[in-house]
Amino acid sequence: PSTIFLSDYSVPDFLIDSTTLRFELGEASSLVCSVLALRRNPDAASQDAPLQLHGTELELVSLSIDGRQLDDSEWSQSGEQLSIANVPASFSLCCETRLRPQDNTSLEGLYKSSGMFCTQCEAEGFRKITYYLDRPDVMSVFTVEIIADQSRYPVLLSNGNLIETESLADGIHKTVWHDPFPKPAYLFALVAGKLAVVEDQFLTTSGRSVDLKIYVDEKDLDKCDHAMLSLKNAMRWDEDVYGREYDLDIFNIVAVDDFNMGAMENKSLNIFNTSCVLAKQETTTDAGFQRVEGVVAHEYFHNWSGNRVTCRDWFQLSLKEGFTVFRDSEFSSDMGSPTVKRVEDVTLLRTAQFAEDAGPMAHPIRPDSFIEISNFYTVTIYEKGSEVVRMIHTLLGPELFRKGSDLYFDRHDGQAVTCEDFVLAMEDASGIDLKQFRHWYSQAGTPRLHVSGTYDEQAQTYTLVVKQSCPSTPGQTEKAPFHIPLAVALIGEAGQLALQLTDAAANIESPDNTELVLNVTEPEQRFVFANIKEEPVPSLLRGFSAPVKLDFDYSGAQLLRLMRSDSDGFCRWDASQQLGLVEIKRAITALAAGQQVSPDSEYVSACRELLANTSLDAAMVALMLQLPSEAYLAEIIHPVDVHGIHHAREALRKALATALSDEFSACYSRCESDEAYAPDAAQIARRSLKNTALSYLMLLDDAQSIALAVRQYESSSNMTDRLAALTYLVNSTAAYKAEALLRFYQQWQHEPLVINQWFQVQAMCRLPGTLEVVQGLMSHPAFDIRNPNKVRALIGAFCGQNGVNFHREDGAGYRFLADQVLLLNRSNPQIASRLLVPLTKWRKYLPSAQQLMCSELQRVLADPELSSDVYEVVSKSLQ
Ligand code: DPP
Ligand code: ZN
């Protein structure tokens, strides 16, 4: 496999003004006939280059230019390229290809899922449908004719407007769709199947009525309400917050069982993984409801940030993904609890993204090179990309940011552009210089801020010294300093102090002068605050104002003050996590010395206070009571001793449960409620706190707690409480757990998404012997290795979220993963390379684990038929 470089970008030699596709869908094979109106690109360097089209795994049936059939000598094929020399300046190319969608297990291009035809073309799947200029800067107007058996495939969909339907002979029917908006091939979609539909309407701000349709399997008709509501909320929000209106009369969503990603934003025909669209209280957890809301909004928002303005090339992927994640997270924050959403986003960033940024696949949000673009749909491109847009929002403020986004959409509507175009629009609209800020696009790695503070009582000043650095990443040893917005406040005995910098060169101030955003731009900088009458505790990186690791040598007392009284929810939560971290480190030391784990009494008191605090959002209380996750600890403690960390953390949790058992019980009872289920912020918060309390109580391993969990399991009418209880039971010594698992399966065996949760609960069980359970479940009739959701629920959850079992000391977990990757490499390379990620982090662990992990990676690398997807990840991780 070869490497593709951003620096090699050149404009396409040809443009495609229109694309007409005809699909004849059949049981054995399908025929695709494409007619492309091609012409030479006047901006191309060469005006006599051959036409080179992308195509892979295609059977070419015929090829003609302007009605004349080409003979074999007029074209040649090599790798994914089909070349035709000596073509005119403008012409019509007609190409027929034969496909076998039913044998397509990669789930890219045209394939079948549960009897329906569907497509996935991003990033480079269209080339599995026909020969084409499969690059996002080639935008074309599509007309699509679909011909299929009427009884098997009554619903035939593509992008844009339905312009014709016709019944043909022999039970065949046809529909024709036309999309007036030029688009790249990656946004093409087709669906044919037997689908039921839920319909609604949305009236846009300028009075256009849009038909909204969600197509699902008949049995799922009762699980569409939440997605529909989320869609309407998202459409309204994008009008209100960004001034973006929907642009067609129809918006379709189709739910598909077998899908590599969460969902796909194809123009007016979004295709969704069932897991990201279906929801109802009996089958879906609160987190599931929130995911549906977030993903529906995300894909809808792409209509502007992605479709109307798209990417010039795949190195610019974060242009649409980072911006759209930022948009959807602001949306979710407005729909629910902003602080909780922020904490969740930061948690994902600080575990998965920081790990990626410190590992062998580290890349800037705009990468310089790749082997396989599918490997770059990463937490870096998405979540760090979103943080970079958020920092622009912080630096500009909401009004100028909106001016910038208006300018970006106006200036580039209908174009395929770059991250640079986005930054330029923000600069032009605001007049704010983002020159140094641009390093965030080109440099990988997580910057580190070392901050120290000194109080000068005599001068009544408080001085913050901020030093920044960034570790080397593959291919980048030296980093230029970043422009980092550092939001700060100073907390005194009675609350936040008024801030007055002696050097006015800063910065953005809050209206009441008690919060500042410092522009950190130098390797080392000093900020002096005047008129400070008491020694304050600094509240730093408020709202997580930049995706960095921050060190400040807080005392326990200072952290307790922040945890009790900081007005910034993120910092308040983070203080609780830092205190938890200190306790876990003490527990590790204690266990290593053969001593008992006993948490600091101040810390226990703070937790007790939290449990009694009914004025604080219950979701915040729950989050603050949860100790830093093992995944986060693995980012902080080096080398990572998975078992040592796990046992220390569990021992500390158990000690807290013992010390606060009455408080946890009381909290549990207080949170019980019999009101009708709603996935709203208040109820979600209460369930979250209730289940956090139950999880602690279960550590007592007493009959009373087990009875509580059993009762909750049996009496819950919603999946959140039921699944939480099942999870705690499965991880306990309760004899009832086998029965609970069996009954759960029997009750839900006809709901694949619920069965996925059943697989996942078992795969994530922390008790010994889980690998054997997982291996056994792989031959369960409900498991299907061709279905990505099942693979993620069982194999992905075990390897990625069950550290103590995956890192079994005999290496069996690693061997299991390598076996599965080698198997999936042949059928679904995208999923195989995704799954491999936990092994690639081998350098973090103890030497004994490193060796075992490495030898499994080597075994994978030795496979002679590695896909480019797996090859890139495994080879880079061994470099
Ligand atoms: N479907 C993926 C997403 O929306 C890729 N565009 O992020
Ligand atoms: Zn996206």
TrEMBL record:
<dbReference type="InterPro" id="IPR045357">
    <property type="entry name" value="Aminopeptidase_N-like_N"/>
</dbReference>
<dbReference type="InterPro" id="IPR024601">
    <property type="entry name" value="Peptidase_M1_pepN_C"/>
</dbReference>
<dbReference type="InterPro" id="IPR038438">
    <property type="entry name" value="PepN_Ig-like_sf"/>
</dbReference>
<comment type="similarity">
    <text>Belongs to the peptidase M1 family.</text>
</comment>
<dbReference type="InterPro" id="IPR001930">
    <property type="entry name" value="Peptidase_M1"/>
</dbReference>
<feature type="domain" description="Peptidase M1 alanyl aminopeptidase C-terminal">
    <location>
        <begin position="557"/>
        <end position="879"/>
    </location>
</feature>
<dbReference type="Pfam" id="PF01433">
    <property type="entry name" value="Peptidase_M1"/>
</dbReference>
<dbReference type="InterPro" id="IPR037144">
    <property type="entry name" value="Peptidase_M1_pepN_C_sf"/>
</dbReference>
<keyword id="KW-0645">Protease</keyword>
<feature type="domain" description="Aminopeptidase N-like N-terminal">
    <location>
        <begin position="51"/>
        <end position="187"/>
    </location>
</feature>
<dbReference type="InterPro" id="IPR035414">
    <property type="entry name" value="Peptidase_M1_pepN_Ig-like"/>
</dbReference>
<dbReference type="GO" id="GO:0016285">
    <property type="term" value="F:alanyl aminopeptidase activity"/>
</dbReference>
<dbReference type="Pfam" id="PF17900">
    <property type="entry name" value="Peptidase_M1_N"/>
</dbReference>
<dbReference type="InterPro" id="IPR012779">
    <property type="entry name" value="Peptidase_M1_pepN"/>
</dbReference>
<dbReference type="InterPro" id="IPR042097">
    <property type="entry name" value="Aminopeptidase_N-like_N_sf"/>
</dbReference>
<dbReference type="InterPro" id="IPR014782">
    <property type="entry name" value="Peptidase_M1_dom"/>
</dbReference>
<protein>
    <recommendedName>
        <fullName>Aminopeptidase N</fullName>
        <ecNumber>3.4.11.2</ecNumber>
    </recommendedName>
</protein>
<dbReference type="Pfam" id="PF11940">
    <property type="entry name" value="DUF3458"/>
</dbReference>
<feature type="domain" description="Peptidase M1 membrane alanine aminopeptidase">
    <location>
        <begin position="230"/>
        <end position="438"/>
    </location>
</feature>
<keyword id="KW-0479">Metal-binding</keyword>
<keyword id="KW-0378">Hydrolase</keyword>
<keyword id="KW-0862">Zinc</keyword>
<feature type="domain" description="Peptidase M1 alanyl aminopeptidase Ig-like fold">
    <location>
        <begin position="445"/>
        <end position="552"/>
    </location>
</feature>
<keyword id="KW-0482">Metalloprotease</keyword>
<keyword id="KW-0031">Aminopeptidase</keyword>
<dbReference type="Pfam" id="PF17432">
    <property type="entry name" value="DUF3458_C"/>
</dbReference>
<dbReference type="InterPro" id="IPR027268">
    <property type="entry name" value="Peptidase_M4/M1_CTD_sf"/>
</dbReference>
